[in-house]
Amino acid sequence: MNGKVNGAVETCRGEDKFVMSKKFKSYLNFSNPTIARNFDPEECAWAYGMNVFDLAAWRKTNISSTYYHWLDENLKSDLSLWQLGTLPPGLIAFHGHVQTIDPFWHMLGLGYQETTSFADAESAAVVHYNGRAKPWLDIAFPHLRPLWAKYLDSSDRFIKSCHIRAS
């Protein structure tokens, strides 16, 4: 990973303009001078749902203390530095420590992108049903549901009681 701590898929390039249009300005409050002074609004964000970490490289950094420092700064600012959630402080803490990895390591947006082909999704290392159309819901995209359903144990007592839709 070229000495970087975190391998992640970028979320600012790609055909899907909803999922793949995220930059720092999508998450951080650039009207705040502290944010504006330290970060570029046009910098590409990355997916926080699946990461590959080089722990030896991490130990050589101050990422953990950077994370806590910015959490404190956000508290002091009345929670105004970024949108609520775990991604914004992660973008800040890992800033400069992320190696872009191929999107097929982590295919995003399967809860948004109806146009994703089954073949493309099946070839991905990790599929991520971020978005509303979770595969267990009636609103799921039917052609993508089998990627999830093949791991569902329909004979499990708990699964039966949940009335989860597998097909």
Molecular structure report:
- With 167 residues, the protein is mainly alpha-helical.
- The chain is built from 7 helices and 3 strands; from the N terminus they run βαβαααβααα.
- It has helices at residues 33-38, 55-59, 63-76, 87-93, 118-123, 145-149, 157-162; strands at residues 6-8, 52-53, 98-100.
- A 3-stranded mixed beta sheet has the order 2-1-3.
- Helix 3 crosses helix 4 (87-93).
- The radius of gyration is 18 Å and the shape is elongated.
- The N and C termini lie far apart (39 Å).
How much helix is in the residues? 25-40%
Strand order of the largest sheet: 2-1-3
Q: Report the sheet with the most strands, covering strand number, pairing sense and barrel closure.
A: 3 strands, mixed
Tally of DSSP β-strands: 3
Distance between the termini: 39 Å
Write down the oligomeric state. Answer: single chain
Mean pLDDT across all amino acids: 89
State Rg: 18 Å
SS-based class: mainly alpha
The number of helical segments is 7
Enumerate the spans where pLDDT stays under 50 for 5 or more consecutive residues: none
What topology emerges from the helices and strands here?
Layout: E1 6-8, H1 33-38, E2 52-53, H2 55-59, H3 63-76, H4 87-93, E3 98-100, H5 118-123, H6 145-149, H7 157-162
Parallel strand pairs: 1-3
Antiparallel strand pairs: 1-2
